[in-house]
Amino acid sequence: MKKKQSWWQIFAKGAAVGGTMTVPGVSGGTMAMILGIYGDLIEAVGGIFRHFPESLYFLALFAAGGLTGITLLARVVLSLLERFPMVVSYFFLGTVAGGIPLICRKAGVKKMTWQALVLPLLGLFIVYALAALPEGLFAAGLSGSDTLTGSFSPRLFLLQFLGGCILAIALILPGISVSQMLLMLGLYEPVMTAVGQLHLLSLLPLGLGAVLCTLLTTRLLGSALERRPQPVYLLILGFILGSLGELYPGLPGGWDLLFSALAAAAGYQLLSGLSQKAG
Fold this sequence. Notes:
Layout: H1 7-20, H2 28-34, H3 38-46, H4 52-83, H5 85-98, H6 100-107, H7 114-131, H8 154-172, H9 178-184, H10 188-196, H11 204-227, H12 229-247, H13 255-277
């Protein structure tokens, strides 16, 4: 793997993608595509063992930038959610919907087939299956002290590790938001709180699961996207459609109705406009 971009470009783009990942509905993969670094990421992760020094250099810079972006925005996003929950939730809904045109273009469906019907339905099923998991199943141990400084529980470690493995799919695939996945797994607020308070050790099992499963599945998913892009993107489309229902906070009242509608429109325009640059 060749270093195609300077160190500060890799760091800055990592920070942009990391900051994006704190916002439910905004896909870090899509933002990486927009910034022209998605292909380099897939190449670096997939070739970590074949081109270890170059891949490690690239990923370390990108991860440092990503952590910087996440840390800077985590408290801001949480604060906005606490003060304006309905309006912010509708903004998130708009951003989720704004990514749909890109996924439809990537799927390239020109006529109705069984895949065009069944695969989005399968994506919907996956979303609601995840939502049916016990609330807080993967979040235990994230809201308090650091995992390594408290009493060690193999069960909690395994659950958080498994949650990280699920997050790995959102890290890899464009169109799927990591924060959106965190919300569905009941991990969003605990993770954002831990990051905002710099309780980073409590995120170690989750991070290990995400990193290791990303390394194990990147080549497989990258190959699937390259060889059979339509089925993969149809599955992603179903996932996004299902997540709209999961993120829906209810109908606002009073002035919140107006501001929520404006926020949803702004979120849609922002993401659909950006996604046009990604093809």
